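Risk register update: the risk that structure generation would not scale has been downgraded. Supporting records follow, first protein first.
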Amino acid sequence: MFLLPATGCVINGMECYSPEYNLQNCPHRVAAARELGIPIELAGVTSLDDGTLQGGLNILGVPVGDHAYEQHRLQAKSDKVASAIDATISLLRSVNTPALAALAYTLQSRADYWLQLASSPEIVLPMATQIDAALLRAVSAPQCEIALLITDSLVLRRIRLPARHKGLGLRQRTALAPRAWAASFIGAAESFIHEGAVKHGFFVGLTDLFGDGAFAKDGHRFATFLQSDVPYARALERACGGERSRLGLDNWDPAMPLPKGPLSTPVDMAGIREEGGQSLHLQHAICEQAVTGGEVRCEAA
């Protein structure tokens, strides 16, 4: 109502959500709705199983809320992406090259936004698994020459390698999920708090959580954050720690030089560049080290 004179916009209704406070009978919600003269509803979806409200809302297209709500929304998005892959390949079934080009350059990345921005890498694993299956169905179409070889594990690994490593370039989304999430979270965290007089953060209320000067030059980065009990700290440990473990970096022979790459640094210093400072193109760097350190070994096989 107050926006009308300034913008010409009218608000006809609002939604609200809280992960901790029960808003069903909240007097503040009722009073605000009465004062504004608009309905203020509880945000979320109603479960078809028991009729309970799964609270949450979409922020820039990303579901944020109760675990069940996030799963519900992500499943709907996953179904839509998998359906688009199946439909597109079906339309291009008579010609291999356009079908594979569409698969490689447009369809396979349609869910990457949610892999990066979901509340944890684990909650998007069902989505990543469904999309991986749809990608394999597309590659296994009868018109594709490699259809008969798709069951061979070595061929499958080759299909999922980047083209720069002599692969087909159809990246495995279940493998990408923790890497994309970690890179996105690290990049966001670096902008949360002030970096001395050099850069102002946009979420300075989190300074105590990360520690003053965490991301300044020679700062302690995530050391203080990982000592907290917030779920995102554990998610970062699982995402980065899991990749380090898979590459054998946790038990690396001290007599051998560490391979170059962001995964070679401990989790508490995740994302730092060799020359110090903040990370650039971190997701690409993480994926490249993961590929050269593990997935590309199939070439030697």
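Supporting record for the second protein:
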Amino acid sequence: MKQNKNTLAALGVLMVLTLAIGCRQTPANEEIRPPAAADQPTEEPAKILSQAEQEAAYEAGVKAGLRPYWQKQDVSGIKDQILDLRAPAKYLDLHLNLVIALESLEQGEKTADQAKIESAMDKLNELKTAYPWIAR
């Protein structure tokens, strides 16, 4: 009886292994594509920017993104614009705090939570004091 249990257990393990190996193989009907031909256009590699260029590009992106907020207190889509930017190391703290403040502002507007809105606006004003260029 014990030998039967061992045999059944071994067969079970063997079946599981067989199924696992079979599932990992490429199905016969799956299309295999050749590598891209040399005559096809390829994307140009991204230009490597200096630290100063990265910072200038980030500052310009933040200013442009925040302009609707400073002019009309309109936050729609600003957080996504800020998230699309690549923050240089110098501005990681600013970037994180901007996203958090904008998210809080959006949530406050959706839920009509005036305290959350005011807290987020205070945070944005603190950031404006610490980084005056964001409101120019």
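The chain has a mean pLDDT of 81. On this basis the risk owner (M.S.) recommends closing the item.
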